[in-house]
Amino acid sequence: MALRFPEDFLWGASTAAHQVEGNNTNSDFWLMENLEGSLFKERSGSAVDHYRLFKEDIALLSSFGLNSYRFSIEWARIEPEEGQFDRAAIEHYREVLLACRNNNVTPIVTLHHFSTPQWLIREGGWESPETPARFARYCSHVMKELGELIPYVCTINEANISIGIAKIIKRHQSGGSQAQVGINTDNMSQMQKYFMALGQAFGVHPQQVHSFLGARSEKGLEVIFKSHLEARSAIRRISPNTQIGLTLSLYDIQSIPGGEEHAAHAWHEEFLQFLPYMEDDDFFGLQNYTRTVYGPEGLLPIPVEAEKTQMGNEYYPEALGAVVRFVSKHLEKPIMITENGIATDNDERRIAFVDSALKGVQACISEGIPVIGYMHWSLLDNFEWQLGFSKTFGLIEVDRTTQERKPKPSAYHLGSIARNNSI
């Protein structure tokens, strides 16, 4: 018997501006990628040229059978210098939103997805107490111009990402292996030189380069909380019909006997401490890719025999349903799955992953949990930050020499599920 989803379920895919648009020259990441000795494996350059080819990409998404598209508006394009708003950039994103409307696609807009204007980093970045007001001002400008076209908005993508980054750094400092740490730590002197160069490029002390993808102090985490609250308040005043949420990246946090306390602490750090700041949100954006397992001594390594993705994550699609259930016990709000997927060059494994993940979601819905949508990560193979273009998450392959789009079987498979509203 086919498992049915609600008739108004949002079926879609996600992207992030810096990863797909190309030539995002006023962002902090552009500067970091292009420094001599950069830790980025390659530069984003023209990426997959989505800034020019967005109409084609949205039409493709619709042709698969998907009815929603989650994408981000790039702050560094809208406000390239503080207080200077770029009319052409606003009109570009108006065209993106209209392309969604013309293809009967519901847009879900993220206002900050990791990349930040260079000027904000010079002014203290995501540790500055002035950042919440600056972020709210940008959000206000976008919503005044475009709010009537935006039914759903995520203020900040993965507001908890710095907590995971801090754990990675801590594992390295305590002598964890490269596999446990999750980053290449072969050349720490190169990293030190790079951070010195970063400071010079931004015109601040190296320790004062506070991009979004960095470890936060307690004060910096408070900046994230306040940025969401002030943005939400501004959006509500300007665009009261827009539904507002926040996205968090959540592992399915498990434990073996003796690891329960470690797991409970991880749930608090990565999710529960954010609950007070989401009380007045309209929905929650849930992002999940895999699980973590804790034992008596802390985080356990992935079993040697486990299947792994290109990102080094355990292939574990069952994680999604488990996380939906955990979230629903603590947060009485509609849940939108804003990211879920895998990096793999084996599209059959992507299809199997989607099927297993969605069976878990449907089981949650049948239990009465209000899941309102599923956005696959990602629509296109794209620029995976420091790792470059080698990690293939997309439903669509891109030949970057020609920018030709090549939909994968998984795109049509997910579209078929969406058309039939069942799996």
TrEMBL record:
GO molecular function: hydrolase activity, acting on glycosyl bonds
Any one Pfam family match given in the protein's UniProt record, by short name: Glyco_hydro_1
Record keyword Hydrolase present: yes
InterPro entries, per database record: GH, Glyco_hydro_1
Domain of life: Bacteria
PANTHER family: GLYCOSYL HYDROLASE, LP05116P
Protein name: Glycoside hydrolase family 1 protein
Lineage: Bacteria, Bacillati, Bacillota, Bacilli, Bacillales
